[in-house]
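Supplementary notes for students who missed Thursday's class. We covered one full example, reproduced here. Read the sequence, then the structure, then the short commentary at the end.
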Amino acid sequence: MSNPFLRHALIVCAGFLFNSCSHPAPTTTAEAPDKGTSSPNAEFPYGSKVDSLNGVPTHHFGKPLSAFKGLVRADGATPGMVSYHLPTGSAQEVRWFAKHAQEVPGVFYLFRDGQFASFQAVAYSAAGQAALAAEAHFLFGPGRPLGDRTEWVGEKAWAVLSTTYLNGQNVKVLNVNSVTLQAEQQNRQQDQLKAENMQ
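Structure (token representation):
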């Protein structure tokens, strides 16, 4: 299967299945770690760089959809999110990913309530997987190794680099997610439930 955008939809679907039995899901936008049971910065201090970036270079979480020119709707997203990609050669593309488009062809921007909330990059070839792993460690520094994935947990954002098996081959996925925006959505959902229960 050569189309990275069709593969993106399959990766997201695979992530829904994985998320039911493991945390975080390496193949879709990961849920923010539960600070009561997972590892806040005090125990695993790997979150300073991911918090500092709060997104990816040149694109910070919370930016409105209107700030991204030329986005094209992509298939597949987590519930409550809409996924997009930028056309090849777009000036809006993160510079490293633009330079490595052959090695890492799947680059996606996910929006929650019209705000940039998650970034996903997918590499299929061995060269692409090595390049993506090197860039993740360059951006975020040493991470917390957890078997077939590495995570960086911050207060505002967190990232996970993982390997999954899809269509007969290993796939490397980097997810960078906004903890802040997810918490805001959860608070709105709780307020809505309270209001409905009051009626």
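Commentary. The helical segments are 4-19, 48-53, 95-99, 126-140, 179-198. The longest strand covers residues 157-166. If anything here is unclear, bring it to office hours.
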